[in-house]
Design brief:
heterodimer, A: alpha+beta, L,D-transpeptidase catalytic domain-like, two-stranded antiparallel sheet, 12 strands, 30% strand, globular, B: alpha+beta, 60s Ribosomal Protein L30, Chain: A, 12% strand
Chain lengths: 219, 177
Amino acid sequence: MFLTRRSLLVSAGAAAAVTALPLPVLAQGTASKWFTGAIVDTGYVYRRTNFNAIEPQWKRQMVKYFSSEPAGTIVIDTRNHFLYWIWENNTALRYGVGVGKEGFQWFGHARVDRKALWPRWVPPAAMRKRVPGLPLKVEGGAADNPLGPRALYLYRDNRDLGYRIHGTLEPWSIGNDVSSGCIRMFPEDVIDLYQRTPKGTRALVLEHLGAPANVVNAG
Amino acid sequence: MNFIQLSGCRTGCLVLALSLAGFAAGCTTINFANTPDVTNAPAPGFETVLPGSEEDFIINVGRRTYFAKGSATLDATAKRTLDAQAVWLSANRGWLAKLQGHADDLGSVEADRGLSQRRADAVMTYLVAKGVEPSRLWAKGYARDRLVRDCADIECKAQNRRVVSNLRTEKDDSAPN
């Protein structure tokens, strides 16, 4: 697993240690304020986020949202670290997200044409160059798979944009810009979004305005 | 446009507005009876979400079950949503649920009415099998009456092929006696 400096600072390496442990140990949880127990989901295990340790604005919530985007659209605001699922009557279900380097290099309209349970992770070549020692691939469901329990893949004109909405092993990274990945959500939230958005869902990625304020550079 | 400032407003702004008698810069539309009409203000009714409330069901379970084109068969994703609904409904027995089916896949309104009813019936059968009392549920097909979006593209179609599990406190005219 690749490490951000933030994870080292915030959790003192606890996350790095746990990813090397076998699942039964993982399921018992570790002494980390970010997690509380474990959840079994479609045959695999993830660590339950301790939402008491999460700032309120990053939790899933229903908000007003004024936009010309139609109901049923996913809107990703990388600058402010929110993902919206648009409802009728100027409301939206809002989730907190973390934004990786690959997450703010593209913007525009797209469509969710593929969804996956416990996706396999194949680090892109650019990321492997940036972070030496990354594996060629990590199987879905493995404890050190940074995509977590779900991924939604954005396409445009039947072409995979390489732009993904996925889970994370690092709940402290939600609300931040980080060095790797695309759009990361709490595992509980990416599971929730997966359930709510059928294949064919419209998506809009807003332009990442200005320089990212707090990129944690691991490379 | 500064969403961060607005989202930070939700707790801070009320205090600020009180102390400045409503002159808080950037929050001048704040209204003590409702939340302000700005992006990221809490949606009405969702300021505080209590366990067992309709808002809890909407945010933490989800009302919508989706279907493939022309189909009333529950796939694995639909079953996971319904499993969660069944658990919630079993824990919150004061609620009834009207299962509202929708369809715009087929050639005629009458065919869509039949498909939307079969979708709603499939959801009801599944919830009952998972332990929800049939007396608390009823199913109604709406054909194309309540589309999320009306267009020929998959972006619209995917949203319309659905059943919405709508919480109710009493039965309406569409419920059987």
